[in-house]
Amino acid sequence: MKRPFAVLLAVILSAGLAVGCTSATALKNAQASFDKAKAAGAEAKAPYEYYAAETYLGLAQHETDEGDRAAVRDFAAKSEKYSAEALQKAGGGAK
Amino acid sequence: MRNRNLLLLTLLILAVAFAAGCAKRGLTKSEMDRADAIAAKIAKAESMGAVDCAPKELAIAKAELDHARHEAAEHHEKAEEYFAAADKAADALLAKTIPCWEAKQPKPASAPTVSLTATPGTIEKGKCSTLAWTSANATDVSIDQGIGGVGISGDRQVCPPDTITYMITATGPGGTATSSAAVTVTPPPAPMVEATMFENIYFDFDKSFIRGDAKPTLNKVASYMKKNPNAKLQIEGHCDERGTSEYNMALGQRRADSTKKYLVNLGVAGSRLSTISYGEERPADPGHNETAWAKNRRAVFVLR
Known about the structure:
heterodimer, A: mainly alpha, 4 helices, 87% helix, B: alpha+beta, 5-stranded mixed sheet, 25% strand
């Protein structure tokens, strides 16, 4: 009976690790998108989208510190969405 | 068996812990009201063009409200703190948006102004006056009395047969303005009537004193003037052709003046007597001999 217990613990740990990795990846992707928008001059060309992306990115980072991974994913996704819009308006999107 | 129970217990604890950690509570009514109030401020700012006027503040306010809602759902005790931050962001958004919106509002059109003058304002019948006008903030300007549409400023000569008032109307986006100017038409002065009832008086060559033969005529003139207190008399001084024009002009004036002085001495008010010299310009006889010259050295009486 020791074996199933160990398996279960491994599953739980893996799941927890996966969730953590997912939020970390989301934050990383959001940051990358924001950097692209910034490099394309979105601050001047699409200020609303740019600052929305920046603010949500900050909130995602804040939630990372708070340990709220769901919020990290949620805010990171919003940041990424606004970064994409900013990038498109700034003319730096895919042609 | 014991291990199995331990396993189940562990699973139960984990499930409860997971549920407790992930479960979200609903917002209280006051929290929803608070969120709605902040959302209304943001919506108001958006309707006033916040996306152009204050894009940064708009983005922050919306994200802060989103964050506050999230935190309220997660941590009841921290909700107020985050709603306060969102509310502050919404206030900052409005503070920047409202002046920007006001500056973009179209300003009300200025009311038109117009002025009309007639120069001269009084004319004799048959003479003309000049209407002049200026206007501001007007798109259409017209003058009545048959003139019609005119430019926003200008002038025009008018020769009305009778006294008339012209009205100018200026119309623009800001309304209508009017101005008027009257032209008073007076009858022409009565034509000068040479007082044929009075004979001319004559002077010696190059002299301006009143001769004895002129005095009966002057007495008649003085008598008439006294009987007709409204009558006015112009005394013309004339000369013969000898001498320069300038000299004769001065000599004619001395003859008119001495005639006037004589009439004044007879009691005629000087204000009713005017003098003028025609020098040698208007001879009574165009001849070039002493007979003609004697007729031309004269004073003539003209009733006005």
